Amino acid sequence: MGAFRFDAVEIPPDAERLRGEVRAFLAEEMPNYPAHVRAGSWMRLEPEFSRKLAAKGWVGMAWSKAYGGHERSFLERYVVMEELLSAGAPVGAHWIADRQSAPTLLKFGTEAQKQDIVPRIARGEAFFCIGMSEPDSGSDLAATRARAEKTAMGWRLNGTKLWTTGAHIAHYMIGLFRTSTESKHGGLTQFLIPMKTPGLTVRPIRDLTGEAHFNECAFVDVELPPDAVVGGEGQGWGQVTAELAFERSGPERFLSSMRLIVEMIRAIGPDPDSRQAVAIGRLTAHLVTLRRMSLSVAGMLARGEDPALEAAVVKDVGAVFEQDIPGIAANLLDAEPSMDAAKTYERVLAELTMLAPSFSLRGGTREILRGIIARGLGLR
Amino acid sequence: MSETRAILEDTCAKLFARFEEPAVLRRVEETGDCAEVWAAVAEQGLDQIFSGGSDDPWRDACVVLKACGRHVLPAPLAETLMAGAVLGEAAPEGPLTLAAPAQSELTVGHDGNLTGRLDRVAWGGAARHVVAEAVGRAVVLPVSSARLHTDRTISREPRDTLLFIDAKPVGSAPRDGQPTAIGALMRAAQMAGCIEAVLAMTVQYARDRQQFGKPIGSFQAIQHQLAILGGHAAAASRVVDAAFDRIAATNASPEVLLNEAAFTKIRCGEAAGVAASIAHQTHGAIGFTDEHRLHYFTRRLWSWRSEFGSEAHWSAILGRQVAATGADAYWPMVTAAG
Ligand SMILES: Cc1cc2nc3c(=O)[nH]c(=O)nc-3n(C[C@H](O)[C@H](O)[C@H](O)COP(=O)(O)OP(=O)(O)OC[C@H]3O[C@@H](n4cnc5c(N)ncnc54)[C@H](O)[C@@H]3O)c2cc1C
Fold first, then answer.
1. Is B102 on the interface with A (CB under 8 A)?
2. Do A379 and B314 touch (CB under 8 A)?
3. Residues 147-206 of A with CB under 8 A from B
4. Contact B14/A at CB under 8 A
5. Is the peptide bond before B95 cis (omega within 30 degrees of 0)?
């Protein structure tokens, strides 16, 4: 019944055992991480940490062993992801490769691409970035202008990719390029691009937090071999849509402000006034509900169903939730955000107040998601 | 959803649709007489879920409660089911209703008879028996032994006051049946179903109603409001389904009942407010008329939202519990909640 499918999901006992292992590992590995560093979580890039996770078998969990994966279930993967995120582990280095680049390669890539690269992703040795957005192509992704021309040797790429998270540490980009101007959607192709390729320049862009998480990637006559195409020539739009379903479906879409909730509870202490108790209770009910919705989406992925619509719902509802938290937190304790790491609560408040605007932009804006949901309701 | 529950949902949909007509709803609202509706429901055995009529009563009840909300069934079927859930096997034949402990004052005489008042009892006058709390356990009182003051809520369902003087209970449960939590779960499940109906109705209206030469649903402002409503509908439905699943899986452990009552009543109550507001805005003036059926749904959402504890009531309970458990136990608590 209803417009969406959110079915029951039971986390199997094996996955719950795994949860314990992850918790123990994190307690061991990151005892002294300051709370405001944890607040960054998948925005923080620590290759060393990513390699440790890979050594535990927690990268590439659901992929075939033939490509270096571990053939664990999607729900086991979900449990590991949510434990890492809720602890604020610095998982940014491998996050994109694990979440969407490798699944894209496994689904659409050539055998050579899969054999060469996917095992390295699973070992935490190959990191990826997403080359979709451009200066004049954000929400209107199919307006992509960066172009790839066929040459005698393969392909020549020119143009600019923008807001490319992690490009400065990534080994590869999967980039969306225009290979034909005849059709807006039909003229797009995905390419596998080593970041060391001559002609590709990465320039970090400082964001409002004062740090550089994303980049500008300029392509000037970047030459690629013929087999750099991922999937089919002209199939880029369909492939990117499938990739976005992976990008939007995970628990990172409602856990971004988790650290602030936890530090707020700590700062309020065991004896909240009624205003504080009401606010904490309300946030908790929302969080539990979102997690249940998100688990249903994981269940759909596990069954091989397409959760694009349900993922958009969770991301939209989740972004409203995580974005509201800094404002609520500031009012509940009458706190001033501070950049002084010694003031734990105020520092985390500062961090998430600054990060919050990005929650409803990255991975598809609120307006775009609501358009997808409206279409799912039969309105478009 | 299992096949048997899909059949149950279908049965409810077909049966309840007969009474979803504005003419029927209006008549029951005006007279308080739901005998015809009740007879049809009882004939199908839908009132027996907690009295041996189901192998999996909580999950089946979830389906029926949501259907009661989705079709705004004008009879105390939800109340009968949940009064049965409070009592367990000891339930007498329906229709039953459930008194909210916060609005009950019963004292026990030395002979075990009860004196006092139960306020704002849903369908009080239409029920045969009322399940109420007296000294920490659930008791059953015949409504025929009460003096009745009729009252209504904005849903125009009866919310009657029952006065008992030295009344003899005809049954009791040996334990605290947690009527407040069970009542909250009942209203939450009804709200979740009702919000689904409001969503469907509003989407349909947005597709049909034309202004400026096109359906209003083609305006992005309307589309985005309906997407917000869709998100709340999905959240309400999911949290309720998961709640009844967990209650079933834990054999209705008191702790789980309390937590799930909080999660569902808070989340569905908030969703109800948003849903009613967006639905009315989208429907324009026609949705504000008595003639249009929307108000049969939104008036119920507004009443159910405040019964068996408001969002603030449950949020405060949950928030105090979270604060007492402490920051480091927070995430483990969330994952343990399933
Ligand atoms: C922290 C962060 C990390 C990012 N990382 C990456 C990355 O790694 N790789 C990558 O490719 N991109 C990345 N992005 C870019 C992101 O995908 C884009 O910001 C997003 O798609 C929106 O594009 P835009 O910023 O150009 O905004 P625009 O598309 O110009 O939108 C501006 C505003 O107009 C609204 N709008 C646009 N079109 C419509 C419409 N049809 N109807 C209604 N409203 C509309 C938008 O919702 C938004 O509110 C990142 C962004 C952020 C903030």
1. no
2. no
3. none
4. no
5. yes
Does residue B190 register a pLDDT over 60?
Answer: yes
Backbone angles phi, psi at A276, to 5 degrees: -70, -45
Inter-chain Cβ pairs, chain A and chain B, closer than 8 A:
176
As a whole number of angstroms, the distance between CA A349 and CA A71 comes to 39
For every residue of A288-354, DSSP letters joined together read HHHHHHHHHHHHHHHTT---HHHHHHHHHHHHHHHHHHHHHHHHHTTPPP---TTSHHHHHHHHHHH
A130-235 has which fold? Answer: Butyryl-CoA Dehydrogenase, subunit A; domain 2 (2.40.110)
Instruction: Tell me what pLDDT residue A245 has.
Output: 84
What letters, b where the CB count within 10 A reaches 16 and e where it falls short, cover B285-307?
eebeeeebbbbbbbbbbebbbbb
CA-based nearest residue to B71, from B162, B201, B171, B250? B201
For residue A379, what is the enclosing H or E element? none
Whether A297 and A231 have beta carbons less than 8 Å apart is answered as: no
Q: Which of B201, B330, B333 to mutate to test the interface with A (most CBs of A within 10 A)?
A: B330
Residues, chain A, total? 380
**So what's the architecture of A13-127 in CATH?**
Orthogonal Bundle (1.10)
The Cα–Cα gap between B119 and A294 comes to 40
- Quote the tokens at residue A69: 């994966």
What would the DSSP string read from start to end of B34-98?
-HHHHHHHHHTTGGGIIIII-SSHHHHHHHHHHHHHHTT-SSTHHHHHHHHHHHGGG--SS-EEE
DSSP of B169-237? PSEE-SS---HHHHHHHHHHHHHHHHHHHHHHHHHHHHHH-EETTEEGGGSHHHHHHHHHHHHHHHHHH
Distant-in-sequence, close-in-space partners of B183: CB < 8 Å, separation ≥ 6: B82, B98, B100, B307, B308
Residue B89: per-residue pLDDT: 75
How far apart are the C-alpha atoms of A304 and A296, rounded to whole Å?
A: 13
Q: How far apart are CA A83 and CA A76, in angstroms?
A: 11
The distance from CA A85 to its chain's CA centroid, rounded to whole angstroms, is 11
Q: Are the Cβ atoms of B70 and A310 closer than 8 angstroms? A: no
Query: Across residues B271-295, what is the average pLDDT?
Result: 98
Q: Sketch the domain layout of chain A as residue ranges.
A: 13-127, 130-235, 238-376
Average pLDDT, chain B: 96
Q: At what angle do helices B57-70 and B77-87 cross, to 10 degrees?
A: 160
For A325, the token pair is: 């938290």
Kindly report, residue by residue over B16-29, the tens digit of the pLDDT.
999 999 999 999 99
Q: What pLDDT score was predicted for residue A304?
A: 87
- Give the distance (Å) from ligand 1 centre to CA of residue A223: 28
CB contact under 8 A, A278 and B235: no
Protein fold of A238-376: Butyryl-CoA Dehydrogenase, subunit A; domain 3 (1.20.140)
A365 Cα–ligand 1 center, Å? 6
ipTM for the predicted complex comes to 0.97
**Positions of chain A with pLDDT lower than 50, given as ranges:** none
What pLDDT digit, counting tens, does each position of B234-245 carry?
999 999 999 999
- Which residue bears the tokens 């990637």? A217
* Per-residue pLDDT, A380: 87
C-alpha distances in Å from residue B150, one per residue of B35, B38, B118, B146, B300: 17, 19, 12, 12, 18
Give CA–CA dist A70/A63, Å, rounded: 6
Residues from chain A contacting residue B338 (CB–CB below 8 Å): 11, 292
Rounded average pLDDT over B79-86: 96
Domains detected in chain B: 3-176 (no CATH), 178-335 (1.20.140.10)
Q: What is the pLDDT of residue A1?
A: 53
B273, with CB counted inside 10 A (0-12, 13-18, 19+), is middle
> Sign (positive/negative) of CA torsion A162, A164, A169, A173?
negative
Q: Decide: pTM greater than 0.95.
A: yes
